[in-house]
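Subject: Oxidoreductase

B.,
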Amino acid sequence: MIRVDAASVNPSDVKNVAGAMDWTVLPRTPGRDFAGVVVSGPPEWTGIPVWGTGGDIGFTRDGSHAELIAMPVEALVRKPERLSFDEASAVGVNFVVAWYGAVETAALSGDETIAVFGVSGGVGGAVAQVAHALGATVIGVDRRPPAVDTPAAAVIDDFVVFDPAADVVEAIKRRTGGRGADVVYDAVGGVTTPAALAALALRGRLVVISAVGSPSVEINLLDLYHNETRILGTDSGKLTAVDSARRLEAMAPYFESGKFRPLPIAATYSLDDAAAAYQAVADHTAGRVVIRP
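Prediction pasted inline below.
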């Protein structure tokens, strides 16, 4: 049993309480990400600050927007000392899906170039930090650059504006000597898919985690196989709390060293004001929104 000191609110939490996640088993306490202290369990864990996330938490297992949360012992991970409870609670799903997609699924290497669509968002910003830590060249793509006080702004090597008046593909090709990006991590999807595919280098890998607008897109199969393109779907919802714990363990040294930093905390709320916290995320508040039970 963990006392929840801080729990961030993710867009997926908002969708969940709105009824958009049809796999959620009701009744259910929502909330995916958390940081707190073990108050009951094995003696070696009692009193230890921990952090966690998972695709089951808040969906098929009661979540973190509560005073207490019950977790399997195998899901316990020590919170990095460098991070406050608020900061640790804001890492979760953003960094787990970033690591899962870039490192494990796309197998990004340090001598490659990655274009991150949606780099100003939570996941995109986390991908940029992960890629930079690996030594890769990072091209950010979004409607506007990351704010100067965000971690992503400090690690991207170049930026391309995504808007109807801009030729995103030409801009990425120009910045890669005509090759294109070895990996495109598309944290938006749907409206960005045509440009994401066209921006790939020979044998490039496209990582897809979302679909904005229409879930269906047209793909030119001739271009696809001539370029030997690989399209890789990544779903953080398939990673349980135990699965996610292994990723958080792998990333913890990066947070302890300061190489990885969560997005700034934009606002904090009490548990009684949780509805206002959800509304803030629904209103696209910049930065992370945290509930302090």
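The longest strand covers residues 200-208.

T.
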